[in-house]
Design goal:
The protein is of the alpha+beta class. It has nine helices and ten strands. The protein has helices spanning 41-51, 62-69, 73-85, 103-112, 115-132, 175-183, 186-197, 202-222, 263-290; strands at residues 17-19, 89-92, 97-100, 135-142, 145-152, 159-161, 168-170, 225-228, 235-242, 250-257. Strand 4 (135-142) and strand 5 (145-152) form a beta hairpin.
Length: 291
């Protein structure tokens, strides 16, 4: 059986600053084609194929998918092969059938996370990105990895971090993961650290543990931690744990070039603005709970 592997977590050292082409004036957000808001056909058909597996379906042949979706069998065949190569379907040669692969879980993970919180945070994150010319994201835990739930890019700075929503990176190797560990209950934290340790040589693990400890001390003092160089060369990351009552623990982060996120600017502007954003989300959540 050929099993398409889950897309591997991005190594923190592989993160890079990339250049985005600026949007023209009045360009609408989101993916649009020339028909002003109509869905892009290949994308629409790809999700239609995935939708065929909802319900009691496990393994489906192309003919089964075609019947469920009313798509031509030739189209289904192309879509199935493409989705298998991308890791969203698994193909069994013995059965000559497909089923959903584990990568689909990553797509659904952010949807299962508190989407109302993300919706509340989105405009505030955009303002934070625009005010400081940085990349802003919300992240959470997915196993021993961190996964990005949402991200915002600065409209004024074309240089941004090359990470997208749904991207994974090892928790132990990223300041975003260190920030999350700092806010977890001791039992959960110890459990995760014990399981992470097996993936590192002894000396490497000692370095990682020291970085985690340093991040904890920073968070205890300032409510956020700062790291330069752990996300690729010349990238500074500011990460703050975000805990809301009865919600999934998350991390708010800003990242950008070292010259953009100097220590002085972080302490004077970026850090306080991050904390203000999180305080707003906590107040909103408290009001929601009381109402």
């Amino acid at each position: 059986m050929n099993v398409a592997p889950r897309k591997p977590a991005r190594r923190a050292k592989d993160v890079r600053i990339v250049l985005r082409a600026p949007n023209p004036p009045d360009y609408p957000n989101g993916a649009h084609n020339e028909s002003r808001g109509l869905p892009i056909k290949p994308v629409e058909r790809g999700f239609t194929v995935l939708d065929a597996f909802l319900g009691d379906a496990d393994w489906l042949a192309n003919q089964d998918i075609a019947t469920r979706t009313n798509l031509p069998k030739a189209t289904v065949s192309r879509m199935s092969q493409a989705l298998t190569q991308l890791g969203y379907l698994t193909y069994c040669e013995r059965r000559r059938k497909y089923r959903l692969a584990v990568s689909v879980l990553s797509l659904g993970y952010a949807a299962n996370v508190d989407t109302d919180v993300i919706q509340q945070a989105r405009p505030l994150m955009q303002k934070l990105a625009d005010d400081n010319g940085v990349f802003v994201a919300l992240a959470g835990r997915d196993g021993l990895d961190m996964i990005l739930f949402e991200n915002r890019h600065s409209a004024s700075n074309p240089a941004t971090v090359g990470l997208g929503v749904g991207e994974h990176m090892p928790m132990a190797a990223s300041p975003v993961g260190w920030a999350l560990l700092a806010c977890l209950h001791q039992n959960e934290r110890s459990y995760l650290l014990d399981h992470m340790r097996g993936y590192y040589k002894r000396d490497d693990w000692m370095v990682v543990r020291q970085k985690i400890t340093d991040a904890e001390l920073q968070i205890a003092e300032k409510a956020y931690c700062i790291s330069t160089g752990d996300w690729g060369p010349n990238i500074t990351v500011v990460a703050a744990p975000l805990t809301l009552n009865q919600r999934t623990p998350m991390v708010l982060l800003c990242a950008g070039q070292e010259k953009t996120l100097s220590r002085a600017r972080i302490e004077q502007k970026v850090g306080p603005q991050m904390l203000k954003l999180m305080q707003h989300l906590r107040r909103t959540e408290a009001s929601r709970a009381q109402g």
